[in-house]
């Protein structure tokens, strides 16, 4: 499959607020795409749609070849979502770890109980991932015993447990103290280098977007107004609106 995510002519309004106005963009297998833009421009809404957490008013969203917002019934939609879920890793701004479970239990919960991966296999993968995100010493800790940066690295490891084809990352560092941000971003960069996983990343960290993205889309008022490699969109944008946003 060449495209792992496709938005075609997606419109979305919340009440009288038009949040997305005919957005079309796609993410190819192994491609890394960053969404940048001012607060309220619709970035998170797009990401939530890719995960099936919001539905478009019109247009279509296809995640891993499955239309996530379409279907004749709620049952169809749920079935479609379950189909894509194993291929999808999602990390949001808040860590969303299960607070009563150890780090290891958090990682193996869905693979073992939902995807029915043998427990030993899941534990092995969890140990491998925790080592890669620098959390080997925290396997048996509970989330409350970890710093925000460590929790976010655990959430990243958890999202990778099923070897997803597509990772959705929504402002994963914006709730962190500044000194913890770089550690988390480094982990994401190394994952991008080591795993065959496409990424759609919403970030306000332009340096990070520059390092990680093959393609950057600049959103403004619900439209993708400029797209291209970081060397263009971040370092030499064509549009005045983009130039102002990146501080040129
Ligand atoms: N569930 C909702 N109900 C009502 N309005 C919403 C909802 N979700 C988002 N919005 C509104 O939609 C607009 C776009 O929000 P979105 O979170 O997608 O923007 P964003 O570009 O991600 O912003 P930020 O960078 O601040 O996270 C905002 O005006 C927001 O208030």
Task: Tell me what you see in this structure.
The protein is of the alpha/beta class. It contains 9 helices and 10 strands. The strands form 2 sheets. It has a 6-stranded mixed beta sheet, with helices on both faces. α6 links the parallel β7 and β8. α3 packs across α4 and α3 packs parallel to α5. The longest helix has 17 residues. The radius of gyration is 18 Å and the shape is globular. Bound molecules: adenosine-5'-triphosphate. The site of adenosine-5'-triphosphate has 11 residues, from β2 and α1. Adenosine-5'-triphosphate binds next to β2 and α1.
List the helices and strands and how they pair.
Elements lengths: L2 E12 L2 E12 L3 E5 L6 H8 L7 E6 L2 E2 L6 H12 L2 E4 L11 H11 L5 H14 L15 H13 L5 E5 L7 H17 L3 E5 L3 H7 L2 E6 L2 E6 L1 H4 L6 H7 L2
Parallel strand pairs: 3-8, 3-9, 6-7, 7-8
Antiparallel strand pairs: 1-2, 1-4, 4-5, 9-10
Helix pairs in contact: 3-4, 3-5, 4-5, 5-6
Bound molecules: adenosine-5'-triphosphate.
